[in-house]
Amino acid sequence: MIYYLKGKIEVVEKDFVVVDVGGVGYKVLVSSKIGENKEVMLYCHMQVTDKGSRLYGFENKENLDFFEKLMNISGIGPKTALRIASIAPMEEMKEAIQREDKQIMKEIFSIGEKKGQQIVFELSRKFIKEPEKDEVFEALRELGFPQANIKEALRKISDEGSTEERVKKALKILGND
Known about the structure:
This protein has helices at about 60-70, 80-85, 90-100, 100-110, 115-125, 135-140, 145-155, 165-175, and strands at about 5-10, 15-20, 25-30, 40-50, 50-60. With about 180 residues, it is an alpha+beta fold. The protein has three domains: about 5-60, CATH 2.40.50.140; about 60-125, DNA polymerase, domain 1 (Orthogonal Bundle), CATH 1.10.150; about 130-175. The radius of gyration is 21 Å and the shape is elongated. The model has no long low-confidence stretch (mean pLDDT about 85).
């Protein structure tokens, strides 16, 4: 398997680049625009099928990981994963999903409403900590607060600090509702 390619971009097309590595040109499908005659190191995902093989390249390891997580979602192939990965870097996508960013959601849903919902659901499961597994959530639920209110309060407080400190902060928010 090819993990990364380090070389010079010789050809730039709409969906791919050709990277010259020691005199050999590798066609690499990319999610972002990369300039010609530029030295790069692309982290790669190699897909081998009965129709041939393809390389998908990313300028950083995090975006490769994001692409591979997308590929693990049922019904998402490499073309769709590459398209979603090109919307925003992984960290930005995590934050956008957590705050339900309308522009990012619109771009994801441009793939198709049903598939878009599935992608958002799967990504939120992979990226967002489930409050039900959180000690603070359990403590507040034991105190009788409704689940929806607890989730909203937990979105407003930091994950930093002890459980006790976080419960106190959440109680202040819940007390103001």
